[in-house]
Amino acid sequence: MIGLKQRGIKVLSNGEQRIVGCYDGDILMDIFHQNNIYIESPCGGNGICGKCKVQILEGSMSAVTDQESKFLSIDEQKDGYRLACMARIQGDATIMVKDLIVGAGIMSTASEYFVDNQPRFAKKYIELDTPAVDDQRDDLKRLADALALESPAISLSLLQRLPKILRESGFKVTISYDGDTILNVENGDTSKDVYGIAIDIGTTTVVCYLMDLVTGRQLDAASALNNQRIYGADVISRTRYAMENKDSLFKLKQEITSQIHHLIVDLANRNNMSLDNIYNIVIACNTVMGHLFMGINPEHIAASPFTPAVTQRVEYSAYDLGLDINKAARVFMLPHISGYVGSDVVAGILVSGMDSNDNLSLFIDIGTNGEIVLGSAGGMVCCSTAAGPAFEGANIRFGMGGVNGAINTVLLDGDRIKYTVIGDSAPMGICGSGIVDSLAVLLDAGLVDDTGRLLDEDEIESGVGQKLAHLLTEVDGQPAFILADAKSSGTGGNIVITQKDIREIQLAKAAIAAGVRILIKRMGKEAYDIENLYLAGGFGSYIDKRSAARIGLIPQELADRIITIGNSAGTGAILSLLSSERLDRTAKIKTMAKYIELSSAPDFQDEYVDCMYFDLE
Length: 617
Hints:
Radius of gyration: 27 Å
Shape: globular
Number of strands: 27
Structural class: alpha/beta
Helix content: 25-40%
Strand order of the largest sheet: 12-11-10-13-15-14
Largest sheet: 6 strands, mixed
């Protein structure tokens, strides 16, 4: 790079160090991306989340910007802390990066399921008659007759290999086929070696399940944090990145394709099986993740009228999608309902069974977007609410994911605050379930009023609140409540819930609650008419039911009707992999569910404002 001086920076993380090259003027986050060094950046490096803090131990950087100052205290700036997305190199440097990935709590356990094992294709061992002068049938005809297929279809690549396979095997082969389509022909009897992969591509995590398609048994599972996270924690930031240029979309596709391929290879190696024996893959995901996996720019989902390129179930060759496994392997992408209600929700509906149940049920998957479905076998309505990433720890001062060091539960024991920490270590921050618990505790203690305002000490009326008043403090000019003091925390300072944090949770919970109210109104029902409330996903499984109802995230009437269904996207993908009937049912679910666009619902704003308030009774 002419005119710019090359530099070397030393990156320290988890007790290890790396030296990477760069140039004066390079942004730290770009350097990390180029060298596969993970740094938490929920906003995708746009300087609006403040999560990409690193410590400059030695060396020179550009001056702290006004935007950075919003997220860095005076003490942090004195100690050399910077935001990686804004700091520019101005010489050799030594940088400390805290890796919060260790101990990530990824929900990779599928819900309990019962299904008749009837996968989409068959695999059969056949000993064929060998060609003779009086039997000059061509090779394909010989296969077709053995399978009683009238008009067989076969790929050109398989047809090119067929004569050699038949003769090397002595015409004793195993044939894989789906209807009239011959998928593969293998030497000898491999009829028992039939495997499939069910995949949940989440915005945050990716989970792959290895399934035996003969027995229907789950053999193994592999999971990881989604490699696309370096380009943003949510679908909006990744869509924005995909729109920058062709290379951006290609990078996003390559990240997820390569990651899934490596997870599948890892599963195969761990179970001493050949990739050639993986035949079907079923994927559940949100609509944007599905587009990115297929290399389709999701830009038109991001702007009104929010139009995806495709929502129907599609089927492609695994090889064509970039998965270098069995050439005959096929990938089934489950159908989406709309641009913001994806196949992960369709899979969740399948798992809950609400599409075949006459009782009214509510399904909620709480994340950056809260997907909500209300209905029964008679029909369903659904919506997506822009809840924001607060429940996942973003935009919360000490918010973090569900990893080691995160406070995950908070409770009020008499006049004392107690909490638990993932990994039983000193707390480093607060994850989503801990944030919801914290707000419920502050409401119970009378420290927060119905508008969400954290009260001053002289305003507190409850006895419990007065005994906890010594934990009230001020951070950067705003009221805050100390959850873990400097002596107890692993940060060396207080871990607090700030007034801004409370507002972020208010906005998020109001969006979910208002969405629920709109669907109930559209169905002409009341909350008490709902028999079951299905909570999906990791957050839905770990959240305290009482706390969720206490802050108004879910209707109080449904607190005792909650059924957690875990990773329903992954379980739904498994069901669709094992059963042709369940796979076909996903297409029916798509047609049953009517999508309601909340941004154009005239009563949504009123409901949203009303749901901002807290019930103090």
